[in-house]
Design the sequence.
């Protein structure tokens, strides 16, 4: 089995699904000859031709808008938004159109597509190359929202997303694009959307997280272990649909819950998890539900490392919960 | 860019006027009937709205030629991305009158399942794509469908309808630009009715015309008399030929006028000069086609009152059936958000149904009415 | 003191502030001669001229984008988005530009403007004339988010918003535009942004809400009273900045918390309130924090009355909390 | 629309070449110096980036004439809405070299307080509005500022800079449309360097030129040799006159070429034919101005190596000062989100400072690097 980075796993999923289903087409800025600015689409145009993998004019609303038209017509477009910070010009097409197409047409027209986009901080990209906008889409009925934390999941979830009959926002944690390697099977396999993963078992405190923060929490868990605290880490993998039972069960066991996310705190997905826990597991709680998140400021440049929740901040919250 | 405008109906030539390529006597009669049906539907729906029997309506009075003349060019392979002012296109493509009327009522038989306001039709069998309210969004989608046709190697086209106001939208710009760059087989049909609610065309754009905007994208732009159904047919059919031949997209501007209010909630006397209205009432596309048909010997007596009565009777029957049809059940709220029902929606549905059992169903607010 | 509807109060605030400060300009679709499709801007153009109140081409991104330019230059634009459902084409200008202008320029350039927009359901407007998108903006650092529930607050909050030096999203609950009347002072006055209001005092259960839902909750409170339950209603008035203390204090008193909002549940502002309560008042809680919200489906047409949280649904949650 | 292009530098006339209206000998020398400074800043910054001393850089090599020639037209009343490829405009408007270099380092003396990546300048005193990364957003803002000038009755204009890729953006469309409808005093300056990262112009638009797009908005469109600083000055100054006279906006296309990579993270050899690069290297705007100055008798010996050395020395000094300046303090993270610090940010700040005390400051990830 080849050992792949998360980025290579994404590329491998695209390679396989384009071979599998000729309705799958890839479009976006610089995805063709250049293979994407991160090289996620490298080799696709050479292999499948300009008809199936092509560059677009510089307009995210056009990328998504045309993808909606293609999907309605019967293709399975996989548009790339170069950085998730640049998804906002396409917000209307995603929220008003892709998300509502099936519902508003009484199920007559559908919009199967996967919007792939690198997200999150940690690459010294400042304001506009670092945001974690997943909550905007989680708040929008009709969309699915997926974020892998490992190469294996990246490939399997992306394949599931492409085969899914509804629009999926697929956020790729770019900070760990190349830093984690894992055995990844050749050929297609699915990791089901809507099923969380216990990234680490533990008994004292549940930490719910997703994307690149899984790695940060794993770091914190090692430090916690040294202090005699056993952290259980739930990697959500998909925010919508959400595997509530996975973390509720864990919280019922540990009695404590910390939610960790890079995004700003107010109305972030961490708040959603906290709200669910406080509704459905309150009797098991022995401490407040704590959120470790990005600050409610725009994403900075020089102080990126201060802004982003690190293992220290996660650990501090876990200790606070455990010692409550 | 010349400002010339294609007109066909009122030819200066003597004798029996010629029909544009592709149009035969039957098609002329069919288009007449379709335009008249559209008009009578509007009349009836506006009255139903005034009577409080349906909640809202958008008439297309005066613009029937744009919708019917262009949609008549489409075959079974072509797709239509309409705005809310193209019921004429839906009829032309074969949408069922009863299905249209069910949609006004948003009842259980409505194929959009009562999910949207009246006139936001969806007819999959007719490749008449679900209408949304946000202005312009369909333009870039139409371009996308055409790209898909090209990718699949189809000899077909998409046609996208929108108003003059929509030319200001983001999606007009990206739609036309993407289409031109990929030379996609699409037709952008702007029904320039010269108003966007209360805003006249001069507040929308400073360009000489809508058609001239095509130059910004490197595609042909054509201006056509939008109240001349034959001219509309001809311009569309030429664009369709270009599209099928792989020569790329065309922007068509149909110059027309919104005779009625913007919608059942609008009062145009607040903002619109009455002279302009009168000027355009004199150019009624149905009356002009009638005059042409008489001159061309295509008019039959049955096209007068008897046809009006026949169409009105079928509308009345459809209204009756729609009014006898139940509203959608509460549980249907949760269908079609996704292909499958996810757990959180199942939970929300079950809690709602449980509550309906214990506390009774939610009540409709009788006062609620759409203000615009 | 004149008795005004919420709509008239909005109009009165605009009239007064345009007289007060000639930097205040109003722009949007149909706001000029037509006075806005709801008539909120009626008479402004006649009084202040086409230079200060004017119609725009049909492009929300243009309305907000030009307003950003005006604000950066020194004006105080008050753009109207005809329905908040149509704000999405302007999302990029709001989220990437207005929200970040002060921060990214180190405080050199600022963007004082008020985006007024009618929001919420209850007018039989279906998908695209009924949404409650406030959470998207609450999740965006740099924006303030305000929603009045009464005519008095509408005028005072709008005046505060116009005088505020930062961009404010001002959501007007259109369902109660004309249905509630109240004495509203002539002349300018401010209702401070960031200060909640106890809309009704009570002892058994705190209900946190905002906008048109305040009225719904008041209806529920009357029904609760008949059942011997005393509801305390906190009208947030502004979501960002948030008056946490107002509802935390109430929850500490009642021991119960229900949050009511029209918007979809996932990542809605109700989740944020629930998360804060579960973090900061968990020891006072005698029941789970419950959310009464719109369903996580697009907003429907025929079943609008079933979709929208009504007094019955609020009451059921309150009873559940009280009997827990 | 003609495809003709305004050029001034290489006149066919014999004798001392004439200068465009408004340009005197001093201005020519000033523009030369500004273009050279821009070039030398780029050279130095790219080296600093390669050495890992700054995190990222965007050079504008080859495009200096567009920025300098156009900004030279501006007065103290005019506002500039730049993209990231106009450091030349910043210098022309009087931005301080030291301030520019501080920004590369994002240190405590940077007037954007280290909040943005390198080259995202903000110079309020120069009316050089804060640059953002999203492509195109400044275009409609420039139109808005011009509307504000008109509302205030100022005889001034805004100038907005953007690339060829940006013409595909939503904000290009709405910016030009709003400006034309309101006849606002603005200049839209497109530095058409023929590439948007790896995408050539032909994938961006099918139009004959960028300038022709002006017709869609009913405004004049001008194409100018973007490597000819005098031609750029002349075209901009004519547009400025129109703007000040109340005649509305102009679209200027400066045809130029991106000699360097898109940014310090890009490798153009992956996608760009070397012949095209060579062709355009031969049209270097600084060399062309030098030749002109020699022909016009404006060249002085001091413009050669001594000037290069002088400028390089001041850049080196600025770099030294910047490197000796501390980074912004953690607490500054929470400033300028709003005019005042709201309670939730005060709480977040206090918690952070508390934690820095107990657990130590957060560490920078030494591996983090901008990949694009
Ligand atoms: C994005 C968006 N903004 C605003 C509206 C409100 N609105 C509905 S129709 C309309 C005018 C449309 O004018 P035009 O495109 O000319 O079409 P017409 O109604 O004349 O057919 C407006 C502003 C909307 N539906 N969508
Ligand atoms: C909205 C948006 N999408 C994508 C990007 C990524 N990106 C940065 S620069 C660039 C190309 C810009 O090309 P052009 O407008 O021609 O300017 P140039 O870089 O050539 O000066 C792209 C795609 C971005 N910054 N913003
Ligand atoms: Mg119109
Ligand atoms: Mg370029």
Sequence:
């Amino acid at each position: 089995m080849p050992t792949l980075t998360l980025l290579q796993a994404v590329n491998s999923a695209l390679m396989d699904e384009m071979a599998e289903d000729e309705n799958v087409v890839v479009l976006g800025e610089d995805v063709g000859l250049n293979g994407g600015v991160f090289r996620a689409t490298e080799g696709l145009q050479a292999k499948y031709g300009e008809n199936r993998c092509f560059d677009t004019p510089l307009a995210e609303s056009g990328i998504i808008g045309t993808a909606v038209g293609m999907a309605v017509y019967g293709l399975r477009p996989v548009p790339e938004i170069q950085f998730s910070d640049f998804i906002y010009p396409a917000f209307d097409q995603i929220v008003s159109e892709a998300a509502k197409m099936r519902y508003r047409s009484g199920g007559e027209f559908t919009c199967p597509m996967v919007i792939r986009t690198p997200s999150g901080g940690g690459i010294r990209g400042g304001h506009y190359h670092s945001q974690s906008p997943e909550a905007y889409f989680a708040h929008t009925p009709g969309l699915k929202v997926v974020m892998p934390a490992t190469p294996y999941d990246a490939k399997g979830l992306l394949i599931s997303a492409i085969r899914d009959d509804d629009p999926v926002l697929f956020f790729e944690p770019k900070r760990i694009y190349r830093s984690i390697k894992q055995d990844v099977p050749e050929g297609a396999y699915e990791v089901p959307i809507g099923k969380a993963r216990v990234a680490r078992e533990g008994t004292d405190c549940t930490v719910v997280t997703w994307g690149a923060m899984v790695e940060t929490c794993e770091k914190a868990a090692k430090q916690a272990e040294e202090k005699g605290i056993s952290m259980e880490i739930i990697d959500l993998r998909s925010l919508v649909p959400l595997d509530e039972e996975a973390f509720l069960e864990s919280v019922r066991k540990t009695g404590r819950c910390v939610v960790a996310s890079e995004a700003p705190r107010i109305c972030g997905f961490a708040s959603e998890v906290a709200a669910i826990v406080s509704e459905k597991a309150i009797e098991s709680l022995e401490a407040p539900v704590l959120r470790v998140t990005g600050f409610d400021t725009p994403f900075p440049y020089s102080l990126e490392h201060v802004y982003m929740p690190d293992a220290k901040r996660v650990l501090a919250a876990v200790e606070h919960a455990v010692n409550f | 860019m010349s400002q010339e405008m294609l007109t066909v109906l009122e030819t200066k030539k003597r004798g029996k006027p010629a029909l544009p390529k592709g149009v035969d006597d039957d098609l002329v009669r069919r288009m007449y009937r379709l335009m008249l049906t559209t008009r009578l539907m509007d009349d009836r729906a506006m009255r139903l709205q005034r009577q409080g029997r349906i909640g809202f309506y958008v008439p297309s009075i005066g613009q029937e030629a744009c919708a019917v003349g262009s949609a008549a060019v489409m075959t079974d392979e072509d797709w239509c991305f309409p705005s809310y002012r193209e019921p004429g296109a839906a009829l032309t493509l074969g949408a069922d009158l009863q299905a249209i009327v069910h949609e006004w009522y948003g009842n259980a038989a409505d194929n959009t399942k009562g999910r949207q306001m009246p006139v936001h039709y969806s007819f999959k069998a007719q490749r008449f794509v679900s209408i949304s309210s946000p202005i312009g969004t369909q333009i870039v989608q139409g371009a996308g469908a055409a790209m898909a046709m090209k990718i699949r190697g189809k000899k077909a086209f998409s046609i996208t309808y929108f108003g003059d106001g929509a030319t200001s939208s983001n999606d007009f710009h990206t739609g036309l630009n993407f289409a031109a760059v990929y030379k996609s087989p699409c037709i952008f049909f702007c029904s320039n009715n010269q108003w966007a609610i209360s805003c006249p065309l001069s507040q929308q754009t400073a360009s000489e015309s809508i058609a001239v905007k095509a130059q910004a994208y490197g595609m042909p732009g054509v201006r056509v008399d939008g109240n001349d159904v034959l001219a509309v047919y001809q311009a569309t059919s030429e664009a369709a030929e270009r599209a099928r031949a792989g020569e790329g997209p065309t922007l068509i501007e149909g110059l027309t006028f919104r005779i009625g209010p913007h919608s059942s909630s609008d009062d145009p006397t607040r903002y619109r000069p009455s002279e302009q209205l009168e000027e355009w009432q004199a150019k009624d596309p149905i009356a002009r086609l009638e005059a042409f048909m008489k001159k061309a010997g295509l008019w039959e007596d049955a096209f007068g009152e008897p046809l009006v009565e026949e169409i009105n009777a079928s509308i009345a029957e459809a209204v009756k059936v729609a009014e006898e049809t139940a509203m959608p059940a509460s549980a249907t709220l949760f269908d079609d958000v996704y292909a499958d029902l996810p757990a959180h929606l199942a939970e929300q549905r079950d809690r709602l149904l449980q509550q309906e059992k214990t506390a009774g169903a939610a009540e409709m607010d009788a006062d609620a009415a759409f203000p615009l």
Summary: The longest strand of chain D covers residues 186-192. Chain D has two domains: 25-323, 330-359. Chain D touches chain A through 55 residues (CB under 8 Å).
